[in-house]
Backbone:
């Protein structure tokens, strides 16, 4: 052990004196030296503990100055934490255990940030084990109840953070069932730690986003539902209606893309709930998409279109909705809605964009006479004070030339 301690001390001193270009080799030497420590018996050693603290503090200082990459920081923390646990005494003090918890949990978090969950798992397990030791030690004390309760609360806060990191690690390894177990333990602690409601809700939302991006729709739907349920358990400490609505809209999108026919009711329920939490343009538009994709009746779609106008959504969104209706073969609804949009935005300087789109759609659908009449109305309006914006005027010119060339041919 003395030879090992001497080698570690030399390598530590060497690393602390290195400049940026030479760090990698020094870090790798230390990493190699401590790689087999887990299999050795624990022996208290002041020099090794000093090296552990020196390396940890150095990594914090270097990282604050932007001198370490994430991987370098993770490796140095690996060494520091391994050394600290290797010299753990048989009956460690509360201070020593808290130091272990801090270093192990932060080392695990750093490896998670490096996208190395397997390495993170090892240190997160160490942190949980140390927390259990600390909890047992606190319970065996004879101190005042208020002191014990305060210390228990601190332990629970640390445990919730570590369990949530373990859930994150499990999700990243596609082990959804294991992640669910960790998250359930976190949820069980919320009654005692209500201030962590928003934290857990947002974490579940992030899991939902991650699994959605991987097209794992079932897992995504689960996590997004969990995010909403957790967020609603405590309104005071929840993430707020805007964030909850955002999660519900993504949940509706998951059902829409997963199998809209099978999950149309769930998709609609999610987006309706999102709009109740916090009405938004994206929520109103998404509702129309779901109704169209699931083959909803015209009456329901018309009601959704009414909602958009009542909510004062922008002209661009209204025109995007018209195009969506046309793409889903709801021609009658599209033209009817477009007329109402033109009336609604009658005094808008951008009205010309809607008028030109109306002409374009009429011509596309072979309604030449109606299109011609609309063009004449636009020209008359243009010269009587209702001038088209430059972009709309250019689009109209292009359309007229296109029609002229077709007629000539």
Residues:
């Amino acid at each position: 052990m003395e030879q090992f301690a001497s080698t570690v001390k030399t390598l530590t001193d060497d690393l602390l004196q290195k400049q940026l270009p030479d760090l990698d080799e020094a870090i790798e030497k230390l990493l190699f030296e401590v790689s087999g420590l887990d299999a050795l018996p624990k022996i208290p050693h002041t020099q090794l503990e000093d090296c552990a603290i020196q390396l940890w503090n150095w990594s914090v200082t270097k990282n604050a100055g932007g001198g370490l990459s994430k991987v370098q920081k993770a490796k140095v923390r690996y060494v520091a934490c391994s050394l600290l646990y290797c010299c753990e005494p048989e009956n460690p003090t509360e201070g020593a255990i808290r130091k272990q918890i801090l270093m192990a949990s932060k080392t695990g978090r750093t490896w998670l940030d490096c996208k190395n969950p397997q390495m993170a798992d090892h240190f997160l397990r160490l942190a949980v084990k140390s927390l259990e030791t600390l909890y047992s030690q606190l319970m065996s004390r004879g101190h005042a109840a208020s002191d014990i309760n305060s210390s228990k609360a601190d332990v629970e806060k640390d445990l919730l953070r570590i369990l949530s990191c373990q859930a994150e690690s499990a999700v990243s390894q596609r082990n959804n069932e294991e992640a669910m177990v960790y998250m359930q333990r976190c949820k069980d602690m919320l009654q005692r730690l209500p201030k962590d409601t928003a934290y857990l809700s947002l974490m579940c939302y992030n899991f939902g986003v991650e699994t959605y991006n991987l097209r794992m729709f079932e897992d995504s739907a689960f996590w997004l539902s969990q995010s909403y349920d957790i967020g609603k358990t405590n309104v005071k400490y929840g993430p707020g209606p805007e964030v909850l609505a955002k999660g519900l809209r993504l949940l509706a999108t998951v059902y829409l893309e997963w199998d809209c026919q099978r999950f149309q009711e769930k998709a609609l329920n999610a987006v309706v709930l999102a709009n109740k939490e916090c009405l938004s343009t994206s929520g109103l538009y998404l509702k129309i998409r779901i109704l169209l994709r699931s083959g909803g009746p015209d009456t329901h779609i018309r009601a959704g279109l009414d909602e958009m106008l009542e909510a004062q959504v922008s002209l661009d969104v209204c025109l995007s909705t018209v195009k969506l209706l046309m793409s889903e073969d709801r021609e009658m609804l599209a033209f009817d809605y477009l007329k109402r949009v033109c009336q609604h935005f009658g005094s808008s300087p951008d009205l010309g964009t809607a008028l030109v789109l109306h002409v374009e759609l009429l011509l596309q659908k072979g309604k030449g006479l109606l299109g011609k009449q609309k063009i004449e109305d636009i020209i008359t309006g243009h010269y009587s004070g209702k001038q088209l914006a430059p972009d709309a005027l250019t689009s109209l010119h292009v359309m007229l030339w296109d029609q002229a060339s077709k007629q000539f041919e």
The CA atoms of residues 398 and 404 lie 10 Å apart. The chain has 18 helices and no strands. The radius of gyration is 31 Å. The chain has a mean pLDDT of 89.
